[in-house]
Description:
It is rod-shaped and about 125 Å long. α1 (2-11) crosses α5, α5 runs antiparallel to α6 (167-196) and α5 (95-163) runs antiparallel to α7. The longest helix is centred in the middle third of the chain and has 69 residues, at 95-163. The protein starts with a helix and ends with a strand. Helices cover 61% and strands 10% of the residues. The protein has helices at 2-11, 22-49, 53-64, 75-90, 95-163, 167-196, 198-235, 276-282, and strands at 264-266, 272-274, 288-293, 312-316, 325-330, 333-338, 342-345.
Amino acid sequence: MNKDTEFTEEKLGQAEKTELDAHLENLLSKAECTKIWTEKIMKQTEVLLQPNPNARIEEFVYEKLDRKAPSRINNPELLGQYMIDAGTEFGPGTAYGNALIKCGETQKRIGTADRELIQTSALNFLTPLRNFIEGDYKTIAKERKLLQNKRLDLDAAKTRLKKAKAAETRASSEQELRITQSEFDRQAEITRLLLEGISSTHAHHLRCLNDFVEAQMTYYAQCYQYMLDLQKQLGSFPSNYCNNNQTSVAPAPSASSNVIGSSALTSTSGLVITSPSNLIDLKECSGSRKARVLYDYDAANSSELSLLADEVITVFSVVGMDSDWLMGERGNQKGRVPITYLELLN
């Protein structure tokens, strides 16, 4: 009650107030500023890494209960799984089905990278910030509160000394003032030493910030590489499957063109290739031809041949086989291969 009364009177200007030295005031201001901005940065980083507020609340509850939150599939992983399931349903031997599977696999890789970013950032960036708020700053706040109480005790002792009239009362008040002054000075020194550690805290948080930036850099580099690889895979698909659902038409060669067959085209690599219609025409001819594989294909069963992008295999038609397939041969391996995965070479 005495402290409350003293504090109220000081606020109202009715009592003397011992001022802290300028250096200590600056340290207190710096600590408070650090606390406020650390909280804001920490909370917004959590929003960046986990946009779902319900998921953040769930993680917070599990953390307070000292239990591990259940692992849940993230958005890129879920999208990737949907794409893979759809591609499998449509058929991995079709251009669209295979493209969906390739996209789905890339999305799942991005999901894994996203999970690693969250884990790394939480460990190397968020945890040190949270430790400061819940540890060091709480200690500073506690000592600052003690300093406030010691100051109020000192001011009260000064007031009593001023009001003391009898010699005996004055002697007692002077003794009390010396004791409260000593306690205030000691607490001010303790608080000052703690506050001067804020500079070390800034240096530590700077290192953590560098770790966070490095984790983000790694994440975005991975995502870029994954998407670049995916773009290359999709770009190798036959053009009549990749131009906004519009079938591309090969330009008619002139009479002077040095090509084989009326529907032949010249590839950017200088090889003479045939249009998709000629691949189908091949089924009506006898003999075998060489073909370049456009993109990877995983055999669905033992009757099919797995393919690797850019390899060259031998293909030939078999009477009665589905028009979308040819028989492929690589060394002593043989199996069905989808026509849309091939670029026939002359």
